[in-house]
Specification:
15 strands, about 30% helix, alpha/beta
């Protein structure tokens, strides 16, 4: 399936109207199926779907390592796509723990949960020796722009990147949904045997509760974004041991939790 499509339209501006063709991102239903049972259906950009599926399985707590997956396949249908997992018997109980009963729109990673308690589920506490300089953090969102080819075409997608100290952004994924982009990034790390504890996640979006939850389950110790966090995201990040940095731009950033992972080089030299 294509990630974008060219659509004709009519642009109206102060200097008049004209016919245009815009590249727009596609979004399709993606069903996550575990041992024959559909666990969730999410609207997503049809790219990097294996990464998306594995990232979702980890951040939902369904699997904790690749050895628990006996088989996996992507099946395309006219109406959408299925990501099919066959899990070891000892993971069968996970199928009923986080059931979702409806398709989630691209702006919300928590839609369709069975109960309020599942929204505030307990998350692991992240422990990592990761350290980033203030310069690396300030430059993180600018560096991520080099990986946003779909956004360059459409101006309508989010990105999640992996920032490694001393190296920069080494990997990134895009999607119409910010939480989908992060799941794709986490899945890509896991499938490539890259330790999530070795870097920080960089987001083009605001920082919401579900993004912090996903980082906690993946073991990512630092979460950086170009926009603001919610209060719930800050509280969860503090409890989960995650460093939360927002409004990250070339001229600086805000820190909201666990600032010990950020090294102020200027202060250190002084």
């Amino acid at each position: 399936m294509h990630t974008h499509v060219s659509i004709p339209g009519r642009a109206h501006r102060a200097d008049g109207a004209r016919t245009i063709h815009r590249a727009l991102p596609e979004e399709v239903p993606v069903a996550f199926v575990f041992n024959g049972t559909t666990q969730a259906v999410m609207m997503a950009t049809p790219a990097d779907l294996a990464d998306f599926a594995y990232g979702f399985a980890v951040t939902e707590g369904i699997v904790t390592d690749l050895g628990q997956v006996e088989d996996f396949e992507i099946a395309e249908h006219a109406q959408g796509i299925e990501a099919r997992f066959w899990l070891r018997k000892d993971r069968a109980n996970a199928l009923s723990e986080r059931r979702r009963s409806m398709a989630g729109p691209v702006g919300c990673g928590l839609c369709g949960l069975d109960s309020i308690e599942q929204v505030h589920r307990a998350v692991p506490r992240v422990s990592s020796g990761l350290r980033l300089s203030t310069a690396e953090l300030s430059q993180a969102t600018d560096a991520l722009r080099d990986y946003q080819s779909l956004h360059d075409l459409t101006r309508a997608t989010h990105a999640a990147g992996f920032l490694v100290p001393g190296t920069g952004v080494t990997l990134a994924r895009e999607d119409v949904g910010r939480h989908n982009a992060l799941d794709k990034l986490i899945g890509a790390l896991i499938r490539r045997s890259i330790a999530p504890t070795a870097g920080a996640a960089v987001m083009t979006s605001r920082l919401s509760l579900e993004l912090v939850q996903k980082c906690a389950f993946a073991g990512i110790p630092t979460l950086i974004a170009v926009s603001a966090p919610t209060g719930a995201a800050v509280r969860l990040a503090e409890n989960a041991g995650i460093t939360l940095a927002a409004f990250a731009r070339s001229n600086g950033f805000d820190l909201y939790s666990h600032p010990h992972r950020i090294i102020d080089e200027a202060a250190h030299v002084a």
